[in-house]
């Protein structure tokens, strides 16, 4: 009788363990599905920063992409007024250096000329900046390049812009991880380079990195 009772208890214990393992496996499968979904959404978001997507933007949207890009690499970014900007669309700052940016969202066939360089030169003086850059989705005329070299204005053409975006995309994929909060189940994307102790964005519980 006692042996039979022990056998029943062992069966119950075994069944309970199997159920726990099954629940854990289902939970892990669900986490993998959620992470795969979150990674897909994140990659789609990053892809919006590629040059083909930018080609479909208007000027204001291009400025916003540049604002997001420079904030992501550690700059403080200020947008100037739309009218009367004195040739400067954005002012970026890092390590006591202030740089004025002029954004030109042109088609590939429409080259950026001398006028853009003249405007950024004026903007550097007006805003008391250390440097001036012109960034375009196209290329620059020879006259614009010559003036920029004389005035020490940095020109970032389509090729250089594509290179900058590609490098930043690679860094973002290397530094970020999707982590599930086991308290509420919400997925959190964490920069594990910058963050040592993470908290869930929904419930505030600590998340293991």
Number of helical stretches of at least 4 residues: 6
Structural class category: alpha/beta
Tally of separate domains: 2
Average pLDDT, to the nearest integer?
Answer: 79
Cα Rg: 27 Å
Overview of the structural elements:
This protein is α/β, with parallel strands linked by helices and 209 residues long. The protein folds into two domains: 83 residues, no CATH class; 106 residues, Trna Endonuclease, Chain: A, domain 1 (3-Layer(aba) Sandwich), CATH 3.40.1350. 50% of the residues lie in helices and 19% in strands. The strands form three sheets. A five-stranded mixed β-sheet has the order 1-2-3-4-5, with helices on both faces. Strands 6-7 form a two-stranded antiparallel sheet. Strand 8 and strand 9 form a beta hairpin. Helix 4 packs parallel to helix 5. The protein starts with a helix and ends with a strand. The model has no long low-confidence stretch (mean pLDDT 79).
How do you describe this structure in short?
By secondary structure, this protein is α/β, with parallel strands linked by helices.
What would the keywords be for this entry?
209 residues, alpha/beta, Trna Endonuclease, Chain: A, domain 1, 2 domains, 6 helices, 50% helix, elongated
Question: What topology does this entry show?
Answer:
Layout: H1 2-47, H2 51-54, H3 59-72, E1 76-79, E2 90-94, E3 97-104, H4 114-126, E4 131-136, H5 142-151, E5 154-156, H6 158-175, E6 176-180, E7 187-191, E8 198-199, E9 206-207
Parallel strand pairs: 3-4, 4-5
Antiparallel strand pairs: 1-2, 2-3, 6-7, 8-9
